[in-house]
Amino acid sequence: MKNILTIDNLHASVHDKEIIKGLNLTINSGEVHVIMGPNGAGKSTLSSCILSNKQYVKTAGRITFCGEDITHATTDVIARKGVFLSHQLPEEIEGISVFNFLKTAKSKIDGKNVYSTDFRKELMPIMSSLDMSESVLDRDLNVSFSGGEKKKCEILQLMALRPTLAILDEADSGLDTDAVKAVSKGIEMFRGEDNALLIITHSMKLLQHIPATHVHVFIDGKIVKSGDSRLAEQIDMRGYEGYKGENG
Q1: Which of 30, 38, 68, 221 meets the CB 3.0–4.6 Å disulfide criterion with 21?
Q2: Least confident of 29-38, 42-51, 61-70, 204-213
Q3: Whole-model pTM above 0.90?
């Protein structure tokens, strides 16, 4: 078992307002960590901080990835090291096709040229597993995509780039049953003993298909309770009210 991510006493602010308030988290290879919490708790802020989004200021604490301090590394450096973030609301980018975006990202991460014909062939079985048409590759990234198509495209990126740590922010948001199954299938195909997942979610949709090894309740900028998959089931039945006063 290899340590993938360690967050030690992280504090972070946006516009001088503290959002993350002393967060501690350790993720090892082969693990699936799930963070659940009410709106405004700081869950998406956490994912942005790990990837060094400049909107958020880290005021204290340390983040290490595979033993290397990435607290103040830039987003592109962190991504090339093997950290992937699927966005809650994926951006639409006109003029850049899905294929060219993936090819460029793959070449930057691998540090070598990617040949178009071979890479397209490599993507075909992945797209089939996600129930995606090959024509998606030639469309502008996320432009005029449905919500389900955008989320599937994020998982296509995940499976094509093969990061060491995948952070999935609300990957099940707005998906119908069939799309949830397709996205879950892609995530399951990605998981392995050499990588790890951090899933941020409000619901049990994905967790019905992806077994979590650790579940954390995130309230007011910190983890107040941790457990196994049974904790997620309790939250699904009872909500977060009973955890709001806990100190972690």
Answers
A1: 221
A2: 204-213
A3: yes
